[in-house]
Amino acid sequence: MGSILRHSAVVALALGSLAPLGWLAGCSVHGETGSGATTPIGEAVDEASSAVASAQLTSDLLARGRLTTTVADTTLRDQLHVLQGATGALLTVVPGDAESVRLRADALRAVSEAQAGVADARVWVRGGPGSPASVAARLDESGDALSSVSDAVEAS
Amino acid sequence: MTIARKTHDRTTYEKDAPQPGRVLDARLHLLDRQLLDVDDVPVTTIDDLEIHATGGDADPVGGPAVLTNLLTGPVLGTRILGGRPPSSRLERIAWSHVRAVDSAVKLGIHGSQLDATWVERWVRDHVIGRIPGGRHDPE
Amino acid sequence: MKRLLGVALGVLTAIGGFLDIGDLVTNAVVGSRFGLSLAWVVVVGVVGICLFAQMSGRVAAVSGRATFEIIRERLGARAAGANLAASFAINILTLTAEVGGIALALQLASSVDPRLWMPVAALAVWLVLWRVKFSIMENVTGLLGLTLVVFAVALFQLGPDWGELAQQATTLAPSGTETWPSYWYYAIALFGAAMTPYEVFFFSSGAVEERWTAKDVGQSRINVLVGFPFGGVLSIAIAACAAVVFLPRAIEVSSLSQIVLPVALAGGKLALAVVIVGIVAATFGAALETSLSSGYTLAQFMGWSWGKFRRPAQAARFHLTMIVALLVGLSILMTSVDPVKVTEISVVFSAIALPLTYLPILVVANDPEYMGTHVNGRATNALALVYLVIIVAASAAAIPLMIATGAGA
């Protein structure tokens, strides 16, 4: 390799390694928003909302005949895992003040109601009792409950 | 064919008179090169060279020397961390078997005739050969 | 006419073979969280992989030697050993992700638990490696993988607001609740997903497998320069589908089952069937390629006999390496780790390993002893140096960002 190329490569390597370090240094000055225990609660609630929304989309598609039972079942099962993860995250959070304790209790309630709703939706998907309307209504309710908790977390 | 001398100490030697044939640089053209057999099947990499004095002496310091064998062996650890394996652990491939030297070094004999290919033959016989279809061409 | 068909086949297999589980997952996740604001990374990644795949294919076609052998000979055992260690480890990780992807896709088709599919998938991959000819393997998986164009079709059928998508694509900043560190973390992940290291070793060894000569360099150039960008377009289509369907609903993609929902929304069960076939083909093809890459890199470094054109008995250690690689990948999967998480980690680590895997290729492509008059032109070298800066920056920033964002949480 020619020496010009070699020298350019060295310069390139040096530039490449220094650039992100400099940027990261600047970035750390800005820092992140969020405080105390409310950010983990907020994140868990967001995850749960996402799971409920996915379940709603899935049930809707299945009701309209655009999805196979297999895919719907798999999607709902995956979302149940997400909800389990959100519950676990909420349980391991240690709230610092009375308000965070209350928020966490609300969040846990909303997430567990969502879990029940998605689990029952899965029963309907697999041919058990239920109907598109009842499943949708239940999931809508869970979604609303989660978003009001989310608003409360943001306001705190 | 004699090899161009490359020594680690700084003692200078007189250059040989020009001779017919190619001049090879051991480090550039031989070491770490792929060794292929007569069918162009890879045999091994060339890990080291064995040089004897022309008188037959094992130690060629200070006199004319000739390349007798190509060496290969368990050098992965030693190449990365330093040192070299004892010469008894290295496999020898006679220089006289070499037919051509270009971007890879080519032998004039089959790989199966060499001791150095024993690991490949062992894996073939005891592992791959035992799995059905191993000896057939892919389709 | 036959030549035209040959060229077309080459291009189509390049498009179909471009996407793997890393592209599928990363683009969908990015689309659901950032919209199209990271689409530019796909463009940068595609240009990069075109550049380096072309270089490595040219090296193999002109010198008749595969990349890793030349790396060992020119850079010595230490540098090549470091390169090998990094490449091999990433290959195993990527292989694990791909086999996991096959199992997840088969679950979508069959309701059978993925853990039951994983040994089947690994066995199937091995059987193809064992008995099927290289060109047949490439052509079949490549052409079947082409069905992933259904993502682009679905995007059109969803009737998105193109203006809004364009605006997302030109807003190079995180939106909504996302932060700059997450933005750059996913940029690096997307970059690693597009510039998969194994592709380069696979491409060059494949050139030797198919006995390319200097005459074939032109064909390979067309395959790469037409095929890979189309593959990039499909990647962006996946992200756009996720952006159109998931972003407004605040859905975060975390499973393969979610990734197919936009296609079902657009095209119903037929499109769903097509996309599942496409995902199985793409991940299967990528599993083959990563296994082969593991075999190629180790065998070429050690000087062993290698190649699918040889019968297994004549390339025993090469095949043994691939068997071991598949077994290691399978054992990792059987620990019930989530294949999607493995995929997300593998793309970031691919980005980290890029400097080690790409710099030697640049060195070798400039070496007149192997390349003769076909060494890199000045323009290629200039572009390659720019990419070197990008690659090293991405690699250096990856771990700090991973820590700062909690791996993208």
UniProtKB/TrEMBL annotation, chain A:
Domain of life: Bacteria
UniProt cross-references to PROSITE patterns, sorted A to Z: PROKAR_LIPOPROTEIN
Protein name: DUF4349 domain-containing protein
TrEMBL record, chain B:
Taxonomy, superkingdom: Bacteria
Protein name stated in the entry: Uncharacterized protein
Lineage, highest ranks first: Bacteria, Bacillati, Actinomycetota, Actinomycetes, Micrococcales
From TrEMBL, chain C:
One Pfam family recorded for the sequence: Nramp
Topology of this chain in the membrane: Multi-pass membrane protein
Keyword Transmembrane helix among record annotations: yes
Main localisation: membrane
Domain of life: Bacteria
InterPro entries referenced in this protein's UniProt entry, alphabetically: NRAMP_fam
Keywords: Membrane, Transmembrane, Transmembrane helix, Transport
Subcellular location: Membrane
TM helices/strands, residue ranges: 35-54, 75-96, 116-132, 139-158, 183-203, 224-247, 259-288, 315-333, 345-365, 385-407
PANTHER family with a match to the protein in the record: NATURAL RESISTANCE-ASSOCIATED MACROPHAGE PROTEIN 2, SOLUTE CARRIER PROTEIN FAMILY 11 MEMBER
Protein name: Divalent metal cation transporter
Organism per entry: Cellulomonas edaphi
